[in-house]
């Protein structure tokens, strides 16, 4: 791969055929090993079924199945670009000692469980963890857990963050678990 991605702020990778999935995943992994801060978009332009989980686990920030209609395509891309982490000025700090999630202007109290969830996602490769991994982080000796209780805890945390900071910090990765918005929380 001849391109230097070390200073790239944003990368768009088009997946125009189901056969291009492996190549696009390799390119994504290559960019991520060189540049952790870049915002990477996966744009799926073929009309076959598509699974975004592999891309999120490899480090993609956005996986978008583009519609055929040009106006719908433009609206979807515009909305996604506007909501991207590199377009956001909100930067948060996780205070593990005082159980606070702080921005420059305000602080919100979080529970110990919520702090552990955010910290686990922050430390995870590509900031993504399965529900089972999150449950194991909360209690390493756990054998069985109620996934609905974990979903409810994360849902409350997401709502609290959205209410105070007006941003989505934790995203659901369908059929896998959750991922943390890249570049928003400083250590």
Automatic annotation (TrEMBL):
InterPro entries: OmpR/PhoB-type_DNA-bd, Sig_transdc_resp-reg_C-effctor, WH-like_DNA-bd_sf. Keywords: DNA-binding. Residues 84-182 form the OmpR/PhoB-type domain. GO terms for biological process: phosphorelay signal transduction system; regulation of DNA-templated transcription. It holds the Pfam family Trans_reg_C. One of its GO terms (molecular function) is DNA binding. The gene is mprA. This is Response regulator receiver domain-containing protein. The keyword Transcription does not apply. The keyword Protease does not apply. Coiled coil: none annotated. Residues 84-182 bind DNA. It comes from the Bacteria. SUPFAM superfamilies: C-terminal effector domain of the bipartite response regulators (SSF46894).
